[in-house]
Amino acid sequence: xxxxxxKNEPVPVILDNVQLADIRCQWKKAGLKTVFTNGCFDLIxxxxxxxxxxxxxxxxxxIVALNTDESIRRIKGSQRPLLPEQERAFIMASIxxxxxxxxxxxxxxxxxxxxxxxxxxxxxxxxxxxEIVGNDFIQDYGGEVVPLHxxxxxxxxxxxxxxxxxxx
Length: 168
Hints:
The protein is an alpha/beta fold. It has helices at about 15-30, 45-55, 70-75, 85-95, 110-115, 135-140, 155-165; strands at about 35-40, 60-65, 100-105, 120-125, 145. The protein has a single domain (about 15-165), classed as 3-Layer(aba) Sandwich (Rossmann fold), CATH 3.40.50. A five-stranded parallel sheet has the order 3-2-1-4-5, sandwiched between helices. It starts with 16 loop residues before the first helix and ends with a helix.
C-alpha cells in the first residue's frame, strides 16, 4: 500500500518550488521514492486520474507540477486554460493519489526537474522516452523515465469539442 501524507503533518499540498525542494529533501532522507509528472491538466478527466493513479503506484510520493496560466497560453493559445491555475491546483491537490502540487512558469518542467531530481519521471503514453523533457539527465543520475499507458478516448481537447458541439 502506498504511504500517504498524514492529515496532521504540517505540509500544505500546494507548494512553491522552494517549499517543495525542502520537502523533497526530507522525503529523500527518509528513503521515500518520489514520482513526478507534469502538465496543463485543464479540465481534469478520467484519463488524467488514471494516469495519476498509475504514477502514484510507482513510488511513495507523487508530485504534480502544473503549467501556469501564462505558460499554457504560450503553448496552447489565448483561449486556454479554461480553468485558472489556482482552481486547477486545488482540484489536483484534492485527488487522493497526489501528495503535492506545484506550478512552473516555463514551457517545460526542465528547471524544476533539475532542482528536484525525482526518482521517477512519468508522462502519458503519447510520449516516447526520448521525447520526454528531462529524460537524459534523469537517466544520467539513475532515475527512471516511464511513459504510462495512454487511455484512449480521453482528452481535454475532445472534451472541449464535445461541449462546443452540444451547446452551439
